[in-house]
Amino acid sequence: MTKARALRGLAVAMGYANVAIGLFHVLLGNAAIPGEGSAGATIDSLGRFFGAIFSGYGLAWLWAARQSPIPAAAVRWLTAVFLLGAVGRLLSLATVGWPQAFQVVLGVVELTLSPVFFWLAVADEKALEVPTGAESVGRHA
């Protein structure tokens, strides 16, 4: 698999996963948060709001994945937001303590996938570049 195909596949997966997770939170509120089903109206409202934002974030990934080439700048910005979420989890860990186990797994995924997306960010743009040698050969023929 080429880097460009890997980028496109990961971006599409990221988009659909985020849209699904976001809608899950919008529809279920506190029940979507492991261990927090009775957190109260304020947290329910906040969670549903962030679920909508999360869905929008997923739609941005899907938009980027459908571009040709996938814009490296968009991948970098979207990845920076993803990484910022992981940093937020680390800050929470440092100040409040360990969350529910699934949240730890999500943090590991965020910290692992962020460097991969940064590494692949230019893959699609590079795959569509015409080699300099091929351009000059075509002009002299």
So what's the oligomer here?
single chain
Mean pLDDT: 91
Helix fraction, binned, reads over 70%
Total domain modules: 1
Strand content of the residues, in percent? Answer: under 5%
Number of strands: 0
Low-confidence stretches at least 5 residues in length (pLDDT < 50)?
A: none
Task: Tell me the distance between the termini.
Answer: 33 Å
Q: How many H/I helices?
A: 6
Broad structural category:
mainly alpha
C-alpha Rg (nearest Å)? 19 Å
Any idea what the shape is?
Answer: elongated
The major sheet is characterized as: none
Series of H and E elements: HHHHHH
Summary keywords:
141 residues, mainly alpha, 77% helix, elongated
In short:
The chain has 141 residues and is mostly helical. It is built from 6 helices and no strands.
